[in-house]
Amino acid sequence: MNDLYLDKENIPKHVAIIMDGNGRWAKQKGEMRIFGHTNGVESVRASLTAAGEIGIKYLTLYAFSTENWNRPKEEVAALMDLLVKAIYDEVEELNEKGVKLDTIGNTNILPDSCQVALKEAKERTKNNSGITLILALSYSSRWEIAQAIKKMAGEAKDGSLSVEAINEDLISSYLSTANYPDPELLIRTSGENRVSNFLMWQLAYTELYFTKTLWPDFKKEHFYKAIKDYQERERRFGKTSEQITDE
């Protein structure tokens, strides 16, 4: 499948991806888990290219969760090294393609080398007007919501926020994704059918697409297939089909 099969008038603005299956892919090949993570970088490149070509404005990738800190120290260290290398290797091409890089998550606890690489890449791409690539690093939805509640509670305590003013829109404005629309489509690879503490507030009305394809095998044609599946769904937001038709 290629993008010629897609309805260019029905492209989601924001797609999020849980990139799962690197370890299993490596194990199938008799390699260490980091081999899968390394090869997964090519799938990131393919998905970003596909998204940019069809006009998607935001692509959020679940790159490293809060829970991932509990993995073996050797794997975590290797992942951090891979992150730094990937950023430095890719930033020039990101610039050439007009990609803007951003992050969400508790990035302050990443190794200094990662923080420096991310800061430099974000600075270099901040004026780009093409697709925005958002990396979720040291991120979890429960952490994000807890941080928002703490901030709102503090402001309510000092009188700068009225409790009566708290509503869904206000809560959204305190989340790390405040500057971005909620994803219309979430893709998860490797056959797992759960959201794993990822963008749980933002996914309230997101279409979910699960594929058994392991992340290192996920290429442009797989991305287009997910978009095609999205386009064949009816997004009702609690309304009936008749109401949608009449609008």
Short recap of the structure:
The protein is α/β, with parallel strands linked by helices and 247 residues long. 44% of the residues lie in helices and 14% in strands.
CATH superfamily: Decaprenyl diphosphate synthase-like
Number of distinct beta strands: 6
Q: SS-based structural class? A: alpha/beta
For the report, how would you describe the main beta sheet?
Answer: 6 strands, parallel
Strand arrangement within the widest β-sheet reads 3-4-2-1-5-6
Distance between the termini: 31 Å
Using the coordinates above, name the CATH class: Alpha Beta
Characterization of the model:
- This protein has 247 residues and is α/β, with parallel strands linked by helices.
- It has one domain: Decaprenyl diphosphate synthase-like (Undecaprenyl pyrophosphate synthetase, 3-Layer(aba) Sandwich).
- The protein has helices spanning 22-28, 33-54, 73-96, 112-125, 141-157, 168-173, 220-231, 241-246; strands spanning 14-18, 58-65, 100-104, 132-139, 185-188, 207-210.
- The protein has a six-stranded parallel beta sheet with strand order 3-4-2-1-5-6, sandwiched between helices.
- α2 (33-54) packs across α7 (220-231).
- The longest helix has 24 residues, at 73-96.
- The mean pLDDT is 94.
